[in-house]
UniProtKB/TrEMBL annotation:
Keywords: Cell projection, Cilium, Flagellum. The keyword Zinc does not apply. This is Flagellar protein G. Gene3D superfamilies: Immunoglobulins. Pfam families: Flagellin_arch-type (PF01917). InterPro entries: Flagellin_arc-type (IPR002774), Ig-like_fold (IPR013783). The keyword Cytoplasm does not apply. Coiled coil: none annotated.
């Protein structure tokens, strides 16, 4: 009889150890998932804070307005945070080609692109634009805008 009780005690202790191991593993996995969700939400919150709208009129002509062969567009900061008005803030792709030399300036002056402010983005395409349709993609801290315009 004593042998049966000892076997049951051993099985009971083994069951408790296994249950504790499973509970510990589940707890650590829940913590990892929670940390991953928190990290992702911070990234998404930063992208939401950076929101822009291209306010240029495609019909008014954005290419070669001043005779220097530049493309000039106006972009409003509609996001919840201020952005620096410098070329490192924006990425421009024109007709599938990445543009490296971009000038960004706040229309009302200043170094900071406040919420509601408009900036002028100006750049010279690598080659003169042929007459026809063109596509400009603007990326500002994860926010993507597409602008289509036509040249004569």
């Amino acid at each position: 009889m004593a042998g049966g009780s000892a076997a049951e005690l051993i099985l009971f202790i083994a069951a408790i150890v296994i249950a504790a191991s499973v509970a510990g593993t589940l707890t650590s996995e829940v913590d990892r998932v929670s940390d991953a969700i928190s990290a992702k939400s911070l990234g998404v919150a930063g992208e939401i804070r950076a929101d822009t709208e291209i306010v240029s009129d495609a019909g008014a002509g954005v290419y070669n307005r001043s005779g220097d062969g530049n493309v000039t567009i106006h972009v409003r900061n509609t996001g919840a945070s201020d952005l620096p008005a410098d070329p490192g803030t924006v990425d421009v792709v024109l007709d599938g080609a990445y543009v490296t030399d971009v000038n960004v300036s706040v229309v009302d002056g200043g170094e900071t692109w406040h919420r509601g402010d408009v900036v002028t983005i100006e750049f010279a395409p690598a080659t003169a634009l042929d007459p026809g349709d063109h596509r400009l993609k603007l990326v500002v801290r994860g926010d993507e805008e597409v602008f289509r315009f036509r040249t004569e």
